[in-house]
Design a protein that fits this description.
The chain is of the alpha/beta class. It has a single domain, classed as 3-Layer(aba) Sandwich (Rossmann fold), CATH 3.40.50.10310. It is about 35% helix and about 5% strand. A four-stranded parallel beta sheet has the order 2-1-3-4. Helix 2 crosses helix 7, helix 4 crosses helix 5 and helix 7 crosses helix 8. About 5% of the residues have low confidence.
Length: about 280
């Protein structure tokens, strides 16, 4: 049995009484994968963001004793400089208020039932600040303070890709997170996790997108490469995907065990940051 088929990990496979017993035992942690339905070029499925966030969450849960809720599979509108743009066919999005409200309700419901920790594992860059707002509202709804045992963590999985892994995957040719949509990282991960869904014969080879430093609305469609990808996935393979997946899962699981076990995590040599913003250049998903 593979991790993603394990009924002991997915909340959807538990009966309500078993869920109540697990929560009642204390210290229950639930991971919520968040993705999108978004075009990822001609070679990747539109559900790539949701697939990757769920598979990472399932592996982390198996390693830590957490469980995984049903994923949020629709995300905020694709932006031209991070996902090619919402004008591209196949991208099916929700408004900010919808994502905020759904996140708020879901997080609040889990915490009200006795779940101690909720962890949102984001796989679509544009979601982040709206997820943050939903979490913040839920925490305020419940009056959870800094000394409360309950908490919510929010992260984007690509922030766990180490510099060493980047070098091993890209060999010094990393184009930057801002043009990685549909590129090597997502393609390699999908080749490792769901190879039957990847069509490498349809890959379009082109240089990374050259986009202005500003956003223009409405967008200029011609600025997005015709493939829908912001960089070509040249060099992506399953071995690189396995390296990425295993390193991200290992480090994320270690962070969760440390943070939720009472040992706050910060970057090596750095003080913990209160900045809520995502990585400034990340555009995976």
């Amino acid at each position: 049995m593979t991790t993603h088929d394990n009924p002991q990990v997915k909340l959807a496979h538990l009966d309500a009484h078993s869920f109540a017993d697990w929560v009642g035992a204390g210290d229950a942690t639930v991971l919520v994968p968040v993705g999108a339905l978004e075009q990822h070029g001609p070679h990747l499925p539109m559900g790539t963001d949701a697939i990757l966030s769920e598979r990472i969450a399932l592996a982390v849960a198996a390693a830590t004793g957490a469980r995984v809720a049903q994923p949020i599979t629709y995300g905020y509108r694709s932006q031209q400089k991070s996902g090619g743009g919402d004008h591209l066919v196949g991208t099916t999005s929700v408004d900010a208020a919808t994502l905020i409200g759904l996140t708020r309700s879901l997080v609040r419901s889990l915490l009200e039932q006795g779940v101690r920790h909720v962890v949102l594992v984001n796989g679509h860059y544009e979601n982040y600040q709206f997820l943050y707002e939903g979490v913040d509202l839920a925490v305020r709804d419940l009056g959870i303070g800094a000394d409360d045992a309950r908490c919510v963590l929010l992260l984007s999985y690509w922030d766990y890709v180490s510099e060493e892994t980047l070098e091993a995957v890209y060999h010094g040719s990393f184009p930057g997170w801002d043009v990685e949509h549909g590129g090597v990282l997502e393609t390699a991960l999908m080749l490792h996790l769901e190879p039957q869904l990847v069509r490498m014969d349809r890959v379009v080879d082109h240089d990374p997108a050259q986009l202005p430093r500003f956003d223009r609305l409405p967008v200029v469609p011609a600025r997005t490469p015709s493939s829908g990808c912001l960089s070509a996935p040249r060099g992506a393979d399953a071995a690189k995907g396995r390296l990425l997946f295993e390193q991200v899962v290992r480090d994320l699981a270690a962070d969760l065990e440390a943070e939720l076990g009472g040992r706050p995590v910060s970057a090596p040599g750095a003080a913990p940051s209160s900045d809520a913003a995502p990585s400034s250049a990340a555009a995976v998903g």
